[in-house]
Amino acid sequence: MAPRKNASVSSRKTASRSAKETNGGPIADFDRDAELNAYREMLLIRRFEEKAGQLYGMGFIGGFCHLYIGQEAVVVGMQMALKDGDQVITGYRDHGHMLATGMSARGVMAELTGRQGGYSRGKGGSMHMFSKEKNFYGGHGIVGAQVSLGTGLGFANWYRGNDNVSVAYFGDGAANQGQVYESFNMAQLWKLPVIFVIENNRYAMGTSTARATAQADFSKRGASFGIPGIQVDGMDVRAVKAAADEAVAHCRSGKGPIILEMLTYRYRGHSMSDPAKYRSKDEVQKMRSEHDPIEQVRARLLEKGWATEDDLKDIDKDVRDIVADSADFAQNDPEPDASELYTDILL
């Protein structure tokens, strides 16, 4: 899924030397370890989300549940470019981001099922958990609200004089929120180290980008503020890593914010209650068969002789065991005590 020809790459001069051009954009040059790491991390997210969907159908997970299946390359590629101390914040489709930052599958699944062993002790659910230890600041249910908070994280880094970068993820739907542009303005005014990642999965709930936006190239959304933007093939983890390297270098050098538009695709509906009748099954299957991010890495590993079918089966088994363990833990973990109603209340 190559970037469109009108991609905005106004800060391309800072591209990583480890990247090479392909399909109109740079990709990171992965060695065997990088490919295997990307494969395992994306597969963990995929299998975890599949299990979460299953538990939702069985009634163990209540409320809203937004799955990240299909978009795994975005957060895995981004995370590969970050260092300890960098912060991540996102919206409600957040399980993949949690796992990619190193949060445990047990803790995330327990939170999804409302158990005391969850990251928010069962009170946050799918959309509102965080981990200060992993520098993951949520999980937010209000569309676009995390963008202003992510900008605030960037301000904190700037004020403290460290070289940390904040990454604020949001979708194509949230990109039309007014507070997003207020955040763009302040971030550029003060040259804050913020990477704005727009995960363009083509649909804001059931509304296609063609029906909701006058400027379909979201990488240009910061142009009036002087914020550079890059349009990225978000289905190729190497392309994501190359763009992430460039964005991180841009921010750490004091040049201010940058926008990355990730052209990606979600295979499931907007949420578990969405039948996705606004698109055809053929469209979804075409994306799966031609652009699946995990299958791309799998094919390269086999083609280059870096892994055998048995090696990949072993990775899949290991990942499935982790996910199964998280589900067992979540289903057997007790619900929070009633006294939790009175904790974490700020007056």
UniProtKB/TrEMBL annotation:
Polar residues biased stretches: 7-17
Keywords: Oxidoreductase, Pyruvate, Thiamine pyrophosphate
Cofactor: thiamine diphosphate
Region (Disordered): 1-30
Enzyme class, spelled out: oxidoreductase
BP-aspect Gene Ontology terms: pyruvate decarboxylation to acetyl-CoA
Keyword Oxidoreductase: yes
Catalyzed reaction equations: N(6)-[(R)-lipoyl]-L-lysyl-[protein] + pyruvate + H(+) = N(6)-[(R)-S(8)-acetyldihydrolipoyl]-L-lysyl-[protein] + CO2
CDD domains for the chain: TPP_E1_PDC_ADC_BCADC
UniProt superkingdom: Bacteria
Gene Ontology MF terms: pyruvate dehydrogenase (acetyl-transferring) activity
Complex and partners: Heterodimer of an alpha and a beta chain.
Name this protein carries in UniProt: Pyruvate dehydrogenase E1 component subunit alpha
Organism: Rhizobium lusitanum
